[in-house]
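Would you mind writing out a protein's amino acid sequence and the numbers that encode its backbone to help me picture the idea?
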Amino acid sequence: MAAIPDRIYIDIRDWDVINQLERENYFNFSNKTRKDQFMFALAIGVNSDLNINSVNIEKRREIFLTKDLSENDKAIFYAVAIKSSNGDLNIINDLNEVYKIVQKYAHIGFQILYNRIKNTAYGSFEKIFEVEMAELYNELFLIKN
């Protein structure tokens, strides 16, 4: 039986993105926990609908301990893993695989953030995300007549 993982990791390259987000304090990033930063990137990665099969995390570094996960966080991890495995509920029995999946999606999210920072004029980065979030909210929650 495989050991139960006690850490969540990110690709070592993602630390540059985190540092830049904190330095510029985008999304109040400097006041967020590492877990919150990870969950933010995870949400962006999942929302991108990009395939994680080609994602390879070569060098990784711990971002937080699994003991810091709330029940809601775990539920999100399980939902992401089930979606990623085409609805296979058995995936939740393999925490190593669940964590690999969410770590890959978070990496995608951090890379999307990096590309957006690099290609967006200073001062408009958060505004663009704000508009996209409002559009997504409207798409998901507002009833269309």
